[in-house]
What does this fold into?
Amino acid sequence: MEREIFANISPLDHRYSVGNEELWQRMSDYLSEEAAIRYLAKVEAALAKALAAQGVAPEEAAEEISRAAGEVRPEEVIAEEAKTRHNIRALVNVIQAKVSPQVRPWVHFTATSADIIDSANALRYKEFTRDVLLPQLKELIGTLVEMAQREKDTLQVGRTHGQHAVPITFGYYLAGYVQRLGTSYQRIQEAAENLRGKMAGAVGAYNASSLVVEDPLALEEQVMAELGIKASPFATQVVEAEYMLALMHEYVTCLGILANFADDMRHLQRTEIGEVGEYFAPEQVGSSTMPHKRNPWNYEHVKSLWKTFLPRIMTVYMDQISEHQRDLSNSASSRFLAELAAGCVLAMNRLNQVTKKLRVDAEAMRRNFAASARMIVAEPLYILLASKGHPDAHEAVRVLTLEAEKTGRPVVELAKSKAELEPYLAQLTTEQWKVLEDPAAYTGQAARKTELICNHWISQLNIS
Amino acid sequence: MEREIFANISPLDHRYSVGNEELWQRMSDYLSEEAAIRYLAKVEAALAKALAAQGVAPEEAAEEISRAAGEVRPEEVIAEEAKTRHNIRALVNVIQAKVSPQVRPWVHFTATSADIIDSANALRYKEFTRDVLLPQLKELIGTLVEMAQREKDTLQVGRTHGQHAVPITFGYYLAGYVQRLGTSYQRIQEAAENLRGKMAGAVGAYNASSLVVEDPLALEEQVMAELGIKASPFATQVVEAEYMLALMHEYVTCLGILANFADDMRHLQRTEIGEVGEYFAPEQVGSSTMPHKRNPWNYEHVKSLWKTFLPRIMTVYMDQISEHQRDLSNSASSRFLAELAAGCVLAMNRLNQVTKKLRVDAEAMRRNFAASARMIVAEPLYILLASKGHPDAHEAVRVLTLEAEKTGRPVVELAKSKAELEPYLAQLTTEQWKVLEDPAAYTGQAARKTELICNHWISQLNIS
Amino acid sequence: MEREIFANISPLDHRYSVGNEELWQRMSDYLSEEAAIRYLAKVEAALAKALAAQGVAPEEAAEEISRAAGEVRPEEVIAEEAKTRHNIRALVNVIQAKVSPQVRPWVHFTATSADIIDSANALRYKEFTRDVLLPQLKELIGTLVEMAQREKDTLQVGRTHGQHAVPITFGYYLAGYVQRLGTSYQRIQEAAENLRGKMAGAVGAYNASSLVVEDPLALEEQVMAELGIKASPFATQVVEAEYMLALMHEYVTCLGILANFADDMRHLQRTEIGEVGEYFAPEQVGSSTMPHKRNPWNYEHVKSLWKTFLPRIMTVYMDQISEHQRDLSNSASSRFLAELAAGCVLAMNRLNQVTKKLRVDAEAMRRNFAASARMIVAEPLYILLASKGHPDAHEAVRVLTLEAEKTGRPVVELAKSKAELEPYLAQLTTEQWKVLEDPAAYTGQAARKTELICNHWISQLNIS
Amino acid sequence: MEREIFANISPLDHRYSVGNEELWQRMSDYLSEEAAIRYLAKVEAALAKALAAQGVAPEEAAEEISRAAGEVRPEEVIAEEAKTRHNIRALVNVIQAKVSPQVRPWVHFTATSADIIDSANALRYKEFTRDVLLPQLKELIGTLVEMAQREKDTLQVGRTHGQHAVPITFGYYLAGYVQRLGTSYQRIQEAAENLRGKMAGAVGAYNASSLVVEDPLALEEQVMAELGIKASPFATQVVEAEYMLALMHEYVTCLGILANFADDMRHLQRTEIGEVGEYFAPEQVGSSTMPHKRNPWNYEHVKSLWKTFLPRIMTVYMDQISEHQRDLSNSASSRFLAELAAGCVLAMNRLNQVTKKLRVDAEAMRRNFAASARMIVAEPLYILLASKGHPDAHEAVRVLTLEAEKTGRPVVELAKSKAELEPYLAQLTTEQWKVLEDPAAYTGQAARKTELICNHWISQLNIS
It folds into this structure.
C-alpha cells in the first residue's frame, strides 16, 4: 500500500524525511510498523528455538517456525488483523499458515502477546540505539572533540547572566559539551543494554509454561539468550515500565544537552556578538522579505525539536501506572516512542551537519573580550589583593569598578592610584602583574583541561 | 514521491491511518504538508487580491496570481526549496514562474514569510476544526444524548472513591458528559474562530507596506477579509502565540473529558462490575493466549491517546517565548501541532464508534446496586432524622452502620429498633418512608436533570 | 502553632515570603489553610441562610450558624480533624458546638463535603484573582503603558533570529506586551468569574435535598447567590474540573507572556547590546567573586518562576480524570493550586518592581541600529524596486547584499552604481528616497500603533 | 521570625507538616532555608581547610573559619542579604565578621557563589537521600517483603484489562513491588552518591585559583574530599544539570511505582471487589453525608501526590539549558526541588503507614476467583491441547468459550463432550487434569518466585 509522502500527517514522515532520506530510511528500518512486525517475528522464532532446545517442541518446529518467521510480510499480518482485530494473533496465524500442520501447535506456544511485543521492543530499541542513535551521537562528539582541540587556545569572554565575566577559551567551552555528551553516550548505551524482555505468560507467573516445561524460568532465559537481551526479573503481563523509561529519560536528557549547545550557538550568532556563523550557501535565502538576513536557523531548529520532544517523556512516566497485571492504556502510547526516538536522532544529525561547517570568528571573540577587559580585571585584582592580606578586597575593588564606570578609567590604573592599596600591590609577582596588565592571559586551566577531557573521551569512545 | 505506508515512522501515518482510511484522508486534507502548501498559496492569492483592491497592484496581478496560486503543486515547491532552503521563497518563486513578468513583482509584495505562514495556519486550523474535528465531536455528543435519554431512568449505584455511594441513573451519568463535551464544543469553536492572521511585515510594524500603501492596516484587514479570519491586534514577525495556544488548550481539555469517560467505561467493564460491554465480533480474538478474554480495548486505546497527546500541550506553552521580534524556535514545533490535532480526532472517532454499539446491562446495574442498598439508606436516614430535629443524626447513623456491618442486619431495621430514634421516625411522611424502604427511589433529580441537559444541548448544537 | 519561617520547606513560605512580606500576607489571606477554612465556613453560613430562605430551616438557624461560622478558628478545626480524620466533618462539628441544640441539625444540612469545598474554592480563587492577582497585573500593564507612550518614538532595531532585521521603536515593542497582557487580564477575569460552586449532594443528583426541599435546584441557586458565584450546570460529587482548569490555564498563559518579556529584557542587557539596565543599588553586589558584575537577575528570576510553575498545569489537566462520581485523587493536588497562584503573582510583582526602574538607553539603541543600517536598507530597496516593476527585485537586492558584505560598501551606494536598476530608482519619490538614505525613518506604523494600543487598554482597563 | 503554621501557603508547610510533625522536622533539617544556609557554611569551612592544607592559607584561617561557619545563624545571613541583595556575599560577610582581620581574606577565597551553592546542594541532597528518603523507602520495602512472604500462597485472580485472566497469588503481586522498589532504591542511592560539587570559579576554568594555587584541580579535589562528594568533571559557573536531573528522575520514577501500587490498592477496595481494606478507626468519618462510607483515601492521597509532583520533573529538564557559562534562570527553580523531594517522602511514608495495617481478605479473593474459574480454564486447556498436537487449539477453545458463555456450561465439561478433542484429552496426565479440574492450582511459579525475589532483596538491602 503506497502513499504520496506529502500526504502524511506527521512531519517526521514528510518534511523531515525528505530532508535526509538516507538517515530516515535507516531509522525506518527499526522504527516503522514494518520493522516492528519483523522484530515480533524474530521473537516467535526465538521462542520456537528455545522450545526445541528445552525438549518441549520437536526440532523441526524450531526450523520451520524460524524459516516462516523470516518470511512474514507486514501486509499479510495487517490483512489478517483486519479479521482477528488482534495484531499478535494475526501474526501467529500468518506464521502457522506457513508451517506444516504438526508444527502449528508450537507457534507462540505458552506465550502471551505481551511476551512477544515487549521482547521485540526491547531488542528493537536496543539495536536502534546501537546501530543508529549512538553512531550519530558519536559522530557529533567527534566533531566537537576536533573543534575543541583546534580552538583550545582561542580566547573568548566567559559570559554569566549574559554579562561578560572572565575569560575562557572557545575550545574549553566545547570541551564541556564533549564531557556532557560523552557521559550521556555511556548512559544511553547502558540503558539500552538494560532493556528487558519476558516469556512469563499472561500474568507473569509462567502459568502456561509451568504446565509443560520443567523449568519455565530456564525457558525464558533461553529465549532471551537467543535474542541477546536480558529477562525482566519480575513481569506482570508486561515488563516493568522502568527499563524503557530509563532509556527514554536518557534520550531526552541528551536532547537537553543538544538544545543547550544549540541555544548558545544561536546567541553567539547575534548581530552584536557574531562570534560564530552557520555556513550559508551562495544561493540560499535568509528571509523572503529581508534579502540581507543570514539566520541561525539550524540551531533554532534543534531547539524547536527539543521543545517538541521533551514533553513526550511525560507520557512514558504516566505509563508506569498499569492496573493489576496490566491494562492496555500503554499500548498506543508506546507505539509513539518511535517518534521520540526519531526526534532525538534528527537533532543529533542536524547539529552535527551544521557544526561541522561552523565558521568560528576568533577575531570577533577577541574584539568582544577587549571591550570589557578593563573591567574583567576586577576579579584577579581582588583575588591578588586578598592573597596579600587585604581584609576587604572584594569591597575595595567593587568600589573601584563603580569609579571606573563613572570615569571611564581602567580599574587597574585606578587601583594604582589608591594609597591604601599600595602595600598589597607592591607584593605582586611579575607573573601576577602580567594578568592584571593583560587579562587575556587570565584563562586559568582552560587549555589544559580541554586537552584532558578530549583525550579522555577519545579513549573512552574510541574516537578516531 | 510515494512510499509504502508501513515504512512510515509515525503511528499516525501507518497503523492509525489504515484503521480508518476515510477519516485519515479527511484529516490529511488539512493537516498534511500538501495541505499546508495549499493554504500558503491561498494566502498569497488573498494578498494579491487585496493589493489590487487597494489600488497598489494592477487588477491583472490579482487574477494571474490567484490562478497561479491555485495551480501550485507541492512537489514543485519542495523541489524549489532544495535550492533556496527557504520554503516561502520557494513558493513565491514557483508562483512567479507561473505569471507574466509584469505581474511578478506583486507576488508576495510587502509580505514577510510569517505573514503567509501564520495566516495560512489560522485559516487551516479554523477550517480543520470546523470541517473535521467539530463534526466528529458533535456526532459523539449526539450519541451520548440519545443514550442518556434512553437510559435516564436506568438505576445505577453512584460511586465515589470506587465505593458505592447513593444511586443515580445511568442516563444522568451520561448527561454529565453531554454537558462537559457540549461546553467544550463551544469553547473549541470560539477559539478556532478567534485564530489570527497578520500582514504586518518583517517585524510587525508594517514597515514595507507603509512605503507603498496609504493605510497598511486597511490592507491587512482586506487580506484577512478575503480569507475570512481576523487580524492579530499586535504581531511581531509572528502572531502572538496565545491564539493558537487557546485552541490547543481547548483540544486537550476536550481530550481529557473523553479520557475520563473512557476510563469509566473501562471500569464498568471490570469482571466484577460488568455493567457495560464493548461489542465483540464473533471472529474477534481477545487474547493470544487466553481464549475467553473480552477486553475493553477501545476505551483503553482512548486513554492511551490521552497520555500520548496531553503532554504535547507543554510544547505550545513553551512556544510562547520567542525572542524580540521572533526567533525561529517555534517553527518545527508548530508543524507538529498537526499530530496533536489528529490525535484528538482519532480519540473522538474511536469513542463514538465503540459507544454507539455499547451494550448496557441494566440488570447488572440493578444487581450491583442491590448489594449495597441496605447500607446506602444511611444517607437518607440521617437527612430525615436531622430534618425532624435530631441534634446529632450523622453520628447516630454512623454508629448504626458499624452495627449493621457487624451484625449483617439492615440499617433501617436497626434504626427502628432504637428507642431514641422513635420520636423522629414517627414524624416521617409516607413518601419519605418509601425511600427508606426502597432506596432505588432515592435518585433525586437524576431523570429530570437528564432531560434538561439533553434538551439544552440538542437546541444549542442543533442535534437532530 | 507557630514556627520559625526559615524552617519551612517551600521557598514560597520562607525566601519568597520575606522578600515582600506585605504582598505575601495579602496572598496568605486567600491561599493559606487558614483562609481555606474561613471560606469553607462562609459556605456553611450561606447554606444555612438559603435553607432558611427556602423555608426548610428556621430563621434562627440561619442567624446562629452564620454567626458561629464567622467565629470558627482554624486551630479548632484542625484539632477536631485529628479525631474525625475528615476535615469537613471536623468543621461541621466545630460549628455545631457553637450553636444551640435545636439548630444543630441544620448545620451542613443536605450537603456533602464537596459541596462546601468546591464552592469555597470557587469563591476563594475568584476573590483572590479579583483582589490580589488582577491588581498586580493591572499595575504592571500600567507601567508598560506609561513606558510605551514615553518611548513610542525611540528607535530600536527589530531583531528576528537574534539578527538585526528592520527598525521598530522601543515603545512599539512594549505596546506588544500591553496588548498581550491586556488580553490575558480579560481572559483571567472571565475565567475567575466563571468558576462554579455546587450544592448537589453526594453524587450530584440532589438526592438528599430532594427529600426535604421542594426545588433542590432553587436551593442550590440561592446558596450560590449568597456567595456571589455561579452553580455548576452538572456536577458529580464535584464540580467539573474544566472551570478551574480554565482559570489555571489563563494563569500560566499570562506567566508565559511575562517570561517572554523577562527573557527579552535579559537579552537586551547583554554586555554587547546594553540597551536597557536593571536598577542597581550602590551597595548591591553582583557577584561574590567578580566585583564588576551587574546582572539582570530580576528578569532571570521571573524566567525561573515560569520554569517552576508552568509544568504544574499538567497536574490540573490530569485532574480532569476522576472515576465515576469522583475519586479523591484530586484532593491533595488541588490544595497545591495555591502555590501555582502565588507563583504567578510573585512573577507579576517582581516584573513590575524592576521594570518601573528600568534604565532605557536610547543612545545604545541608536548605536546598535546604526551598525546595521547599511544592510537594513535591503528590504525597503527591494520593496521600492518591485513597486516600480522590477521583475526580480528580491534576488537583485540579495546579490547586492552579498557584494556589500564582501566590499564593505553600503547597499544603496551599490544599487546606484548598477545600470540595470537605474530605470526603477529614477521613479522613486523624495519621500521614498528619504527612507533609503536614512533607514531610521523606516519604522512604519510603530508610533501610530503604539498610541492606538495604549489608548485602547487605558480605556478597557480603566488605567489612570 | 515566627509565623502561624496555618498561615503558610504551601500545603507542605501547613496541612502536610502537622499530619506527621516528626517526619516533617526530619525533612526540614535538610530541605529548609535554614538547612540550606547551614550547608553553605559547611562548604565555606571545607574550602578554608583545603586552602590551608594546600598551603595557600594559614592554618589559623582553617580553624577560625570552620568555627565561624559552624556558628552562622540563618537570621544573620538574611539580615545581611537585605543589604547586599546577594545571598552568598551575605554569608561571606557574616563569616568574615566572626573571624580576625588577618583571616578575613581567606573566607571564600578564589570561590564564586556557585562553587558554594552547587557543592552545598550536592551534599545536602546526598545526605537527605541517605538519611531521610532511603530509610523511608526501605521501611516500605520491608513491609512489602513481609506481606509478600505471608501471602505467597494466597490465591488471587490475575487481572488484565480489568478482566479476570488466570490466577496468581497476592504475595506474588506484592513481590513485583518489592522488585521494582528495590531496583529503584539502588538507582536512587547511586544517583545521590553521584551528585557533584565544584570549586572551579566564576566560569569553571579555575581562573582565580590558578593565580594563587599550584594545582587548582587538586584544591578542588581536596574541598570535595572534605565534604565527601565528587567533583564535576567539567563545570561552567555551575555543575552540569545532569547529575541533579538524574537524581530527580529517580525520585519521580519511584513515585510512579508507588502510585501504581496505590492505584491497585484503590481498585481492590472497590465495593464489588473488596479484596483489601484500609484500616478504619472506630471514630473515623468516611463522608460528611454518607455515614456508611469507608473510603480508600490514603491510597487516593498517594495517587494525588504523584499527579502533583511528577510534572515538576519538567522543570528540572528545562533547567538543562543555561546560556554560555550560565544564566541564573535555574536559581529559583532549583530552590523548589526541596518540594519535590518532600513530596516523594510523604508518599512513601503514607504508603507505608497504611499498608502496614492493610486488611487482606483472602476469602474475598477466593470468591472473586471462583466466579470466573470455569472460564479461566480456557488457557490451560488450550495449552494442553496444543501440547498434545492439536493444530488449532486456541481457536477450538475460543469457540468453546463462546458456547460456554451462551449455555452457562463449564468450558471443561464442554470440551469433554466434543469428539474431535477426545484424542488429545486422552493423553493428559493426572497432574495436568488436576489443573483443569481445579484452576486454583494454575498459579505457575507464583509462590516460588515470590520467595526468590524476597530473599534477593532481603539480602541486597539488608532487611531485617
Observations:
- Chain D has a mean pLDDT of 95.
- Chain D touches chain C through 84 residues (CB under 8 Å).
- The beta strands of chain D are 2-4, 155-160, 163-169, 196-197, 230-231, 276-277, 359-360.
